[in-house]
Amino acid sequence: MRVGGLRHFPILRTEKDDTMTYENPPSATGWSAPTLTVVIPTFNERYNIAPLIEKLEIALAGISFEAIIVDDDSPDGTAELAKSLAAAKPHVRCIHRVGRRGLSSACIEGMSASAADFVSVIDADHQHDESILPQMLAAARDGADIVVGSRYTGEGSSTEGFSAGRQKGSEIATRLSGILTGKALSDPMSGFFLLRRSLFNDIVPRLSREGFKILLDIIVTANRRKSGKVEIAEIPYTFRPRFAGESKMSALVVAQFLGLIVSQISRGILPTSFLLFSLVGASGVLVHLSVLTFAFEALSFNFANAQLLATLVAMTTNYLLNNELTYADKKLRGRRFWTGLLSFYAVCSFGTLANVSVASVLFESQYANFLLAGIAGATMSVVFNYAVTRIFTWR
Ligand SMILES: Nc1nc2c(ncn2[C@@H]2O[C@H](COP(=O)(O)OP(=O)(O)O)[C@@H](O)[C@H]2O)c(=O)[nH]1
Ligand SMILES: [Mg+2]
């Protein structure tokens, strides 16, 4: 039906007026809803995506699928290239995120954009073997809630794509996460997995958006549902070397991973960013004491001036570290870097007031213990600074 150049698709109304479903457009011949969405998170993967899409088309021949590339505004122009692919191929889409960074949040956003029955995530660098996707889909159709492409079980081998150091690190991380999932999963750190979209929809509000290891988070969160533990299937494959470009693995990723583990053990009461913020705070104490000693002893400052200098230096290093590490995903740059620094100074000054007042009250109470009072005061200011800088500094 055409009305003034606009095509109207019939809307089916069910009993309740607020639930509507849409019929397939009658003229869209050849179009079929995808069964599987393949999410491809990218950062600087310009030379990897077109050949990966071709490999997916071969691997998934006969299965209706769509690929959603989620790019965080890569400087190498991955998003532009992805959009030119999308313009040529109906089964390719691109989510171009500006001003945001992060692998987990990119995967979540891609899966959230899916309308297919099954969703999967695969790295853009060809390290994951796309040819096992049909097997993964079959396992999910057979009843598995989550299917993991695994680098370690059976014939799967990871030695080819990993350096010796990364191999060891990956093994330690696998053991650590085994404590959390409670299951002898051979590769909980895999970034290659598939799950039913209904399960994803169910748990997405409780997923952490920080860090690199989304699968671990999905498994732990899914297991905590009232309906009981999820069934996980593993399909082995040979981990390949990167096709083009460079890895984004860094010290930051490792710190965020450790943060995720503690955050999960505390059942989300302690978010990863809070743990990193506290860690940075602890490093600030060391900076403070070093500058204080140096200014007081070596430069013969009077105590008040030495203390003032130490406070300023420690606040500044804390700000820089938090901007790089804790809030790498919303890093402040340019003018916002400087206004952020000023607001950080202001918040920390109030935090110090809170610290000193709480500690003094405790110290003067009948349970006086200077160490306990000191720790309570410091905790108070970390919590205060964390909560308030999230509102005023890293919004
Ligand atoms: N959207 C998005 N993708 C990312 C980000 N960091 C890494 N990726 C992608 O995640 C995948 C895995 O990253 P990679 O650097 O290969 O990690 P490695 O295999 O552990 O060395 C690749 O497709 C990256 O392009 C990010 O911050 N945002
Ligand atoms: Mg990789």
UniProtKB/TrEMBL annotation:
InterPro entries per the UniProt record, alphabetical: DPM1-like, Glyco_trans_2-like, GtrA_DPMS_TM, Nucleotide-diphossugar_trans
TM stretches of this protein: 274-296, 302-321, 342-363, 369-388
UniProt keywords, alphabetically: Glycosyltransferase, Membrane, Transferase, Transmembrane, Transmembrane helix
Topology of the protein relative to the lipid bilayer: Multi-pass membrane protein
Domain GtrA/DPMS transmembrane: from-to ranges: 277-394
GO molecular function terms listed in the Swiss-Prot or TrEMBL record: dolichyl-phosphate beta-D-mannosyltransferase activity
Superkingdom of origin: Bacteria
GO-annotated cellular components: membrane
Cellular compartments annotated: Membrane
Signal peptide segment: none
Pfam families according to UniProt: Glycos_transf_2 (PF00535), GtrA_DPMS_TM (PF04138)
Glycosyltransferase 2-like domain span: 37-203
GO biological process, one term: glycolipid biosynthetic process
Family: Belongs to the glycosyltransferase 2 family.
Protein's UniProt name: Dolichol-phosphate mannosyltransferase
Organism listed in the record: Pelagibacterium luteolum
Lineage per the UniProt record: Bacteria, Pseudomonadati, Pseudomonadota, Alphaproteobacteria, Hyphomicrobiales
